[in-house]
């Protein structure tokens, strides 16, 4: 709605509320929500004052008021009346819904198998500290439910990075504008971290060189000086090849190495095994490219690397991140505020997580931990005790979890009691016994940290909950009361929870109060403007140094010194499998969806058009596939139907299918996670979404114009 054209409706009362984008995105934008007459959100905008948001929101969130007021919102609690998966439900009252959950949870906790039969399943519907990391955790801790190991996205990279650097702290994104060389390594910045882009452009305008390292030619690669396309899952080899050249040519920063690193002789020895020729073969690159990149990286200052999650969704994903994270210490790039590496800033927020989550409420010994990336196995294989109840919130596992065939088989179990707390009728909802209507970000209060900048951002409830929707905290308060949990913390208000999160003595939080945040909307952590965290070493590792040698990895049976761990499924590492399924599938973040969020909304569906798979002209020709053909991608785990986009954006041997579509909105009724596997990463127990061999065959010819 155009607010300028409102002169003829003088009775309208407009108000601007400060909010935060809740989605799983590094940018955590500060938003301004325009509310009409106290109950309708009519506009959302980026806060022009916020140094990274700079007044813009991405295409996903720019019309958030439409998501909030969508006619497709779930309005009341629902009880299943059809078969699991059918999606037939009848409206019931909150009281009846909570009665049923209480009865099931009580009978399970009182059974001989106990409360570990109950599994919460949540991830990143919102990243709010209040709505997704407090009352929910307290409730399941007090219940004694199985713990969920939240590995589906970032645990491999986090563990790999921490083994090298010590904590998820890196270059301040606000300094990127001063860099002279930027490597965008396994990140599609314009799609998944768009508010970093103006800083990349600023650096470019000042003469910086920007290089993308990604098996796919992304829209980010289109805008850069150079695109290097290694085979998926080979980044550790590439990084070791760069080190080989740097050491061989004496381009390392000896002083930094000697003073601030541990194990540099070991790493030098390891790198010597990775000649440019050997690495070129592993990565499918020219040796010359590796030599040139190494020289450029070692001789340009400031040089900064932005890594995201692309490289970690492979069998060796943890080690890949660990290895790349060694590079800045080798060339002394950490000396500059605009140099170093950035994976995530989340480790810079010293909040009181124990106060939020209350792990002390758990019984002793603590309940078992189940890995969310193994949901298919958890629900279908022998477990002692078996999972008999699943409580899903802030996640859509039927669409986003790997090896979907197994996940759906598990969700179909008649003896599994499934609760789903959701805004929309997702694929997961179709398998629920009870569905609870959830609020959107505009209807709830929250406090946000960020993983792509150094600001805390407040989210005020802009409007009251619509229809019968309730937020997560309120729902868990009600459940806690029914279960008779009388601990004081179950009566905390959302504001009190936010205050508890901020209650620490850490200097980075000094002066940051809830009142101040509500007044200003967002506040930067107390870290210097020229934050150069490791200019003088001081790594938060056990040795205080950048650890090329890691005793803790060695103690857990992993290689102590970086090395290349090949993909589980690739031509080189699994030739027999590759003879049947020769194409390496990568299913990265799509531009208009955010994982499976937004993938049901009209504007975003129009933007993404249809589920597609990019295939190189050589590979397409070998299969008689033309641009626009309807194809089937398959492997031993499953199959899905897509439209072929024949393009050199996918290198030969690699196919790319941006994700995550809803199954029920996809032709054939299944999405790309039919093909991904439940194999885990080397470090961190992460999912390996991009480590999957597939074959693609033509189903029928194009019926429409090519894309
Ligand atoms: N528009 C949009 N934004 C998002 C999301 C979304 O779904 N849509 N998702 C959000 C979430 S949850 C996350 S975790 C982040 C993810 O943010 P990113 O990490 O940027 O996203 P991905 O698409 O997973 O991977 C980035 C790039 O890595 C490439 N890649 C795949 N395998 C490899 C490899 O082995 N090596 C290298 N070098 N590159 C590889 C992919 O082709 C892709 O272009 O984005 C967040 N932002
Ligand atoms: N093939 C493939 N699969 C992937 C990925 C990929 O790149 N390729 N990416 C992976 C990654 S990086 C991630 S992080 C995961 C993400 O997977 P999920 O965490 O499941 O994320 P979404 O698909 O966005 O689903 C979040 C759901 O939470 C709901 N929600 C939002 N806010 C709230 C709230 O306040 N309360 C409640 N109760 N619900 C809410 C939304 O409506 C939405 O349906 O997917 C992974 N799956
Ligand atoms: S999804 Fe990311 S870029 Fe888009 S509005 Fe939210 S925080 Fe900003
Ligand atoms: Mo993610």
The domain tally reads 3
**CATH architectural category of the largest domain:** 3-Layer(aba) Sandwich
CATH topology of the largest domain: Rossmann fold
How many beta strands in the DSSP annotation?
27
Overall mean pLDDT: 96
Largest sheet: 6 strands, mixed
The total count of helices amounts to 26
Shape: globular
Q: Spans of 5+ residues with little confidence (pLDDT < 50)? A: 1-5
**Distinct ligand kinds:** ligand MGD, iron/sulfur cluster, molybdenum atom
Relative strand content: 15-25%
Distance between the termini: 31 Å
Quickly give the structural class: alpha/beta
Q: Strand order within the widest sheet?
A: 5-4-17-16-15-6
Q: Cα-atom Rg, whole angstroms?
A: 25 Å
């Amino acid at each position: 709605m155009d607010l300028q054209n409102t002169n003829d409706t003088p009775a309208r009362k407009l108000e601007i509320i400060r909010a935060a984008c809740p989605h799983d995105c590094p940018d955590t934008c500060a938003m301004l929500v325009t509310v009409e007459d106290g109950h309708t959100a009519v506009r959302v905008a980026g806060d022009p004052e916020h140094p990274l948001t700079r007044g813009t929101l991405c295409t996903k969130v720019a019309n958030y008021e439409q998501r909030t007021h969508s006619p497709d919102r779930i309005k009341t609690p629902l009880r299943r009346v059809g078969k699991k998966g059918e999606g037939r439900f009848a409206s019931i009252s909150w009281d009846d819904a909570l009665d049923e959950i209480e009865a099931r949870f009580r009978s399970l906790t009182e059974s001989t198998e106990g409360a570990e039969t109950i599994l919460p399943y949540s991830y990143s519907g919102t990243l709010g500290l209040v709505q997704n990391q407090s009352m929910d955790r307290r409730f399941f801790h007090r219940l004694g439910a199985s713990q969920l190991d939240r590995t589906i996205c970032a645990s491999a990279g986090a563990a790999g990075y921490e083994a090298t650097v010590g904590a998820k702290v890196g270059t301040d994104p606000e300094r990127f504008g001063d860099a002279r060389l930027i490597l965008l390594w396994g990140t599609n910045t314009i799609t998944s971290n768009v508010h970093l882009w103006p800083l990349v452009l600023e650096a470019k305008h000042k003469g910086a060189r920007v290089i993308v390292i990604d098996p796919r030619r992304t829209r980010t690669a289109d805008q850069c000086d150079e695109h290097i396309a290694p085979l998926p899952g080979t980044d550790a080899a590439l990084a070791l090849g760069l080190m080989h050249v740097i050491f061989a040519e004496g381009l390392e920063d000896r002083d930094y190495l000697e003073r601030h690193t541990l194990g540099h002789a070991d790493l030098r020895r390891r790198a010597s095994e990775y000649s440019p020729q050997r690495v070129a073969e592993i990565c499918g690159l020219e040796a010359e490219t590796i030599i040139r990149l190494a020289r450029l990286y070692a001789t340009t200052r400031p040089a900064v690397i932005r890594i995201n999650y692309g490289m970690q969704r492979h069998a060796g994903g943890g080690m890949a991140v660990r290895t790349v994270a060694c590079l800045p210490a080798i060339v002394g790039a950490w000396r500059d505020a605009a140099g170093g590496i950035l994976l995530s800033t989340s480790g810079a927020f010293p909040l009181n997580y124990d106060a939020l989550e209350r792990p002390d409420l758990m019984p002793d010994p603590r309940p078992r931990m189940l890995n969310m990336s193994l949901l298919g196995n958890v629900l279908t294989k022998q477990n002692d005790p078996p999972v008999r109840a699943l409580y899903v919130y802030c996640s859509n596992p039927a669409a986003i979890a790997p090896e979907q065939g197994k996940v759906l088989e598990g969700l179909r179990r008649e003896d599994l009691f499934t609760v789903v707390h959701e805004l929309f009728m997702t694929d997961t909802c179709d398998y629920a016994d009870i569905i609870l209507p959830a609020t959107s970000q505009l209807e709830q209060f929250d406090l946000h940290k960020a993983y792509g900048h150094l600001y805390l951002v407040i989210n005020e409830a802009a409007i009251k909950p619509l229809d019968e929707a309730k937020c997560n905290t309120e729902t868990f308060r009600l459940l806690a009361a029914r279960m008779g949990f009388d601990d004081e913390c179950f009566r905390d208000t959302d504001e009190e929870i936010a205050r508890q999160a901020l209650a620490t003595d850490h200097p980075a939080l000094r002066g940051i109060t809830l009142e101040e945040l509500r007044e200003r909307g967002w506040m930067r952590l107390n870290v210097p403007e020229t934050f150069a965290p490791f200019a003088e070493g001081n790594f938060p590792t056990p040795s205080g140094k950048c650890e090329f040698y890691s005793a803790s990895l060695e103690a857990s049976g992993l290689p102590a010194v970086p090395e290349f761990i090949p993909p589980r499924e690739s031509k080189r590492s699994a030739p027999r499998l590759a003879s049947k399924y020769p194409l390496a599938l990568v299913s990265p973040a799509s531009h208009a969806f955010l994982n499976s969020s937004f993938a049901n909304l009209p504007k975003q569906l129009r933007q993404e058009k249809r589920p597609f798979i990019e295939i190189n002209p050589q590979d397409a020709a070998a299969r008689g596939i033309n641009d626009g053909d309807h194809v089937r991608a398959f492997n031993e785990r499953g199959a899905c139907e897509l439209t072929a986009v024949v393009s050199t954006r996918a290198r030969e041997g690699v196919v790319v299918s941006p994700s995550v579509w809803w199954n029920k909105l996809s032709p054939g009724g299944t999405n790309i996670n039919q093909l991904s596997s439940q194999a885990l990463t080397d470090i961190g127990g992460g999912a390996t979404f991009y480590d999957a061999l597939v074959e693609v065959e033509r189903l029928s010819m194009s019926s429409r114009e090519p894309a």
